[in-house]
Amino acid sequence: MDKKEYETLRKRYDETKTRISQLRKEGSDVLIPSLRMMNLPSKFMLLETTQDDNLLLSMNNMLSIIRDELSEKSPADKIKELLQRMNSLFTDNKTRELKAVYERVRMMYGALQPQERLEVLTEVQSFFQKIEEYKKNKT
Question: Structural domain tally of the chain?
Fold first, then answer.
C-alpha cells in the first residue's frame, strides 16, 4: 500500500464525514450512511497495521457506496457514471478495481425498477460488447 493512497482514502473519509454532518444539520435522513461509516475507523487502524491493498480497495469501495447514497442523482445516473468509470478502468487494464466497480454496478442494477433498468440497458450492453470484442481479439 502506498502512503499517498492511504492519505487520499483518509481525505475522502473526512470529506464524507463532514458531508454527513452537514446533511444531518439540514434535516436529511443519513442513518444508513452513518451506520456504514461506523465501521471505517477500526478498519483504518487495521489498514495502518497490515498495509493490505485488498482492505484499502474494500474501504474505497465502501466510501464510494456511502457517497453514492448521499448524492442526489438517480440510481440510473449513478450506474451510468460507474459504467463510464468501468470503461476507463478496462482501457487502463486495472482489473482489480474494475471488479470492485462491477460489483457495485451489479448490486445497484439489481435494485433498479424495470423502467430504470431500461434507462441504462444500452450502456450496459455496450460495455459487455466491448468485453466480447476484447476476448475475440485476444484469442
Answer: 2
